Amino acid sequence: MGAIRRFRIEDLQRVVTIEKQSFGEFAWPASDFRDLAREPLFLVALNGDIIAGYSITQVRNGHAELISVATSPRYRGLGIGLRLLERSLRAAVKLDARRFGLMVKIDNHQAIRLYRRLGFVRVRTVPRYYEDGAGGWRMLLELTTPSLASTTDTRRRDP
């Protein structure tokens, strides 16, 4: 699998395509991604020259928040989401974030397994959080935990 780098405006159409493939009628419009383009943790994962996934994390006042993450259906199951999140976690620590939060649909078992693998814990359930009426889990990771160093050490997985 290829590199992870910051989003560039020329990546917009591919990111929007992945968004539509992942979220269907609830996909964000291109304008939302354009608004987030300056976020330092708007990342894309490459497979060769092709953008295979993206993640957006905001860091404010010591708190990081995963805004969105998606992988193209063609590249799912290859660890792209994991790599994007590990990079975001490391970068959030460098930006002095002490906590990292996210929301996930309660029935998105694959994502929940990934987040738990990284050390996230469920802190509450939010009924009807999503546009389709589905509930969400609020998950949180304290970035000051000793396990973070091993959780984000990609040397054990990346050749």
Itemize the secondary structure elements and their pairings:
Elements: E1 4-6, H1 12-23, H2 30-36, E2 41-47, E3 50-60, E4 63-71, H3 80-94, E5 99-105, H4 109-117, E6 121-126, E7 136-142, H5 147-151
Parallel strand pairs: 4-5
Antiparallel strand pairs: 1-2, 2-3, 3-4, 5-7, 6-7
Structure report:
There is one protein chain. By secondary structure, the chain is α+β, with helices and mostly antiparallel strands. The chain has a single domain (4-156), classed as Gcn5-related N-acetyltransferase (GNAT) (Aminopeptidase). The chain has helices spanning 12-23, 30-36, 80-94, 109-117, 147-151; strands at residues 4-6, 41-47, 50-60, 63-71, 99-105, 121-126, 136-142. The protein has a seven-stranded mixed beta sheet.
Q: Which residue ranges are poorly predicted, with pLDDT under 50 across at least 5 consecutive positions?
A: 149-159
Major β-sheet, in short?
Answer: 7 strands, mixed
Mean pLDDT: 91
Instruction: Give the amount of beta strand, in percent.
Output: 25-35%
Keywords, please?
Aminopeptidase, 159 residues, alpha+beta, seven-stranded mixed beta sheet
Short account of what is shown:
The chain is of the alpha+beta class and 159 residues long. The chain has helices at residues 12-23, 30-36, 80-94, 109-117, 147-151; strands at 4-6, 41-47, 50-60, 63-71, 99-105, 121-126, 136-142.
